[in-house]
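Fig. S4 source data, part A: sequence.
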Amino acid sequence: MVQLFLSEPGLGDDGNGDVANERISLLNRLESIIWSIIASGGRSEARLWLCTTISCISSITPHDQCELFVELLRFKLPKRAIASQLLQMIFEKRPQKVGSIIAKKSYMLEKFFEGNPRRIMQWFGNFASVGESEHRKGARAISQFAFVNRDICWDELEWKGKHGQSPAVVATKPHYFLDLDVLSTVENFLENVPNFWSSDELAESLKDGEILLIDTKFFVDQFVRLMYEENLEDIWAVIKAFLIEEKFSFLCQHLLILLDERELLAFLKSLRRFLIARPKSRDFGGSSYWLENLLLTCNDCASIDELLLLNAVINQGRQLICLVRDEEHEEEKGTIEKLLEISTWSSNSDQWALMNGCVKMNKSPAIKLIGLQSWLLHYRLSKECKTPESWESLFIQNRITFRRSESYSLVMLDRVPKRSGSDLDDGGSIRAGRKKKAKNNRKTKKRGYGCDDNSEDELVELETSTGWQDLQLGCGSWLLPTDGYSCPWNSVDLPEHLARHCFSTWIKWVFSK
């Protein structure tokens, strides 16, 4: 049976140091195997996993995250790829913030439309037809500007008919603008009416940022140039406001994936000074807490290789197991199976000898060993615990109280779910709830086990209900004290959950010393 080693050692029980050293050697071998699997995939997936973990950090304030990402954008060589992605995000979520900036850059607009009939028609070809109230987008800007400045620019309007239209006629029948030759007119304005491109009428049509949809890449490229070549403060102000308003997780998920490993490590080093120290009672079970603690307690950040490995074994245990079981990693899988055969400990003191050894180490190698140990446990649980009986035996042997969950919504729609299984009563023993059902129900006897040395076995009655049948078929789930009985855990998710719980328990003990 798999031992979880959740009980702390007794006073003076330091375990066997030689056994602990053997386990460290075994874990180092396991590290090499896992690293070869990670490296075979080009490391890109492992880097993505690390970015996801960074995005889970919740202690960064909005103004700190703004400073952090602005620093990233300005770091040494311009980060044009990051800037492009960030501008794309701003264009999608806050287009109105940049419309006014575009309106101030008349040369940008002229460049955008010059020699491009498609863009011209998309923006300026939206005149109102009969029954419509007004022109739209650039069409409205042309009509308004032409009327206000008819003395100097009306002749630049080109008409499709045999003769042009006068301002007086068009004023009473706006749909006559449908006869305007839009391409020729805009070309005339580009060549002969420069005031139009900086006019209030055109600026008004641009303020909602809808023009960005015509060719987003063009404006992204232009804004990146304005950021780094002109250092335009208006753009930086929009960027800073966006970085403050958005969630840290959203920014990380969309921007950090563009960094190479050297840049990602530099980002983490910058991130360290913005982290808020948590109390000693912090929950190390959170996805990012181990990383936060590592950054806060280490004078020098771990290498990127160490961080990628640490994150993989701590947060991506299930994905790693899937990789190990892939056909192309048969050799690595065989080696891990051999390590499993010699890695079983029956002595609690031997496990805690390893923990005592970790106390004396620097934080990075200590977290790595604890992470590898928890992943090895994850692997064993997924391999050895397949049936409800094996899981309940594991709970009992490791003194974990549990309650069977009967919330089988797909097969119990006409029944009120009842809590059953094992509960911790006032005497400290695990007792299954007794149920009384209809006369045709069969009853089975099963023993309950104590969760401490003083508890006694008790006979419990369990009906052969639909829920229990599902439990026998391997479809059962349990409520556990590891998360305050907050949600049911099934056989698929239990290996990862228990491995994480063990990691959290072990590392809290090591870091408290």
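Fig. S4 source data, part B ends here. Residues 17-40 form the longest helix (24 residues).
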